[in-house]
Automatic annotation (TrEMBL):
SUPFAM superfamilies: Cytochrome c. Residues 1-30 form the signal peptide. GO terms for molecular function: heme binding; iron ion binding; quinol-cytochrome-c reductase activity. It comes from Streptomyces purpureus. Its main location: membrane. It comes from the Bacteria. Residues 47-126, 142-220 form the Cytochrome c domain. It catalyses: a quinol + 2 Fe(III)-[cytochrome c](out) = a quinone + 2 Fe(II)-[cytochrome c](out) + 2 H(+)(out). The cytochrome bc1 complex is composed of a cytochrome b (QcrB), the Rieske iron-sulfur protein (QcrA) and a diheme cytochrome c (QcrC) subunit. Its EC number is 7.1.1.8. Keywords: Cell membrane, Electron transport, Heme, Iron, Membrane, Metal-binding, Repeat, Respiratory chain, Signal, Translocase, Transmembrane, Transmembrane helix, Transport. This is Cytochrome bc1 complex cytochrome c subunit.
Length: 269
């Protein structure tokens, strides 16, 4: 008994007991862990990729190549990620009706389940931006004022100050953001579709993306309300300056002419 008590008081006894407990815990977890769940997830992912490949072969391969390597009619999809597929197909831009300076938004022809399958297949071709979860793009609790600052600094040059959109060069344009879902706004910032630059988390953190989404939703929530007065197309200072120049200065000139005419009449009389 004295020998056993002395061993219990040994400085390394606690370490040995801890190691034995960890080993026992790991063994029990390995024995009773729901390995079937992990296998089920892997199986579901494999099925999604397989179904996505079938959809891709029918609707995408003619332009992007049988293995997503790209052709003269479409860019490579290796490394674009599932977020790009969810945005392009989820907004109806893809499959494209015809080549052009810019592919417009149109009616979506795939279900969300089919879009997820296409995204799974394209994501398997190479790592890229992942389709965001609801918590990443939800504007709840976002700073609308900060989002406005970020939007004006990074987006207004093309989309105008409230996301009305605008013309670019060579037949391209920045689309109107009024009816774009928060998910697709987030994915557009992630992936930089068509002429838009991309804003990965290393450039624009998730919180700032959510602030921008909150601002875009706020200024487009009810276009009939304009607390600042007539919105003049909501295009920013250009239209407002033009209005002030044409009508404001015109009114002043008309006033000056009227005063001069009446002054001349008064002198003659």
């Amino acid at each position: 008994m004295k020998k056993l008590s002395a061993r219990r008081r040994h400085p390394l006894a606690a370490v040995v007991v801890l190691l034995l407990a960890l080993a026992a815990t790991g063994g029990l977890y390995a024995a009773f862990a729901p390995a079937g769940t992990a296998k089920a997830d892997e199986t579901a992912q494999s099925l999604a990729i397989e179904e996505g490949k079938k959809l891709y072969t029918v609707g995408c391969a003619s332009c992007h190549g049988t293995g997503g390597q790209g052709t003269t009619d479409g860019p490579s999809l290796v490394g674009v990620g599932s977020a790009a597929v969810d945005f392009q197909v989820g907004t109806g831009r893809m499959p494209a009706q015809q080549p052009g300076a810019q592919v417009p938004r149109k009616k979506v022809i795939y279900s969300q389940a089919e879009i997820d399958q296409l995204a799974a297949y394209v994501a398997s071709l190479g790592a890229g931006p992942i389709t965001p979860k609801a918590g990443q793009y939800s504007p709840d609790g976002a700073d609308i004022a900060k989002g406005g600052d970020l939007f004006r600094n990074n987006c207004a040059q093309c989309h105008n100050f409230t996301g009305e959109g605008g013309a670019l060069t060579h037949g391209k344009y920045a689309p109107n953001l009024a009816n774009v879902s928060p998910k697709h706004l987030y994915e557009a910032m992630q992936t930089g579709p068509q002429n838009m630059p991309s804003f990965p988390d290393t450039t624009m953190p998730e919180k700032e993306k959510k602030d921008i989404i909150a601002y875009v939703q706020a200024v487009n929530s009810d276009r009939t309300e304009t607390p600042g007065g007539f919105k003049l197309g909501a295009l920013g200072p250009v239209s407002e300056g033009l209005f002030a120049w044409v009508f404001g200065l015109g009114a002043l000139i008309a006033c000056a002419v009227w005063v001069a005419a009446h002054t001349a009449k008064a002198k003659k009389s």
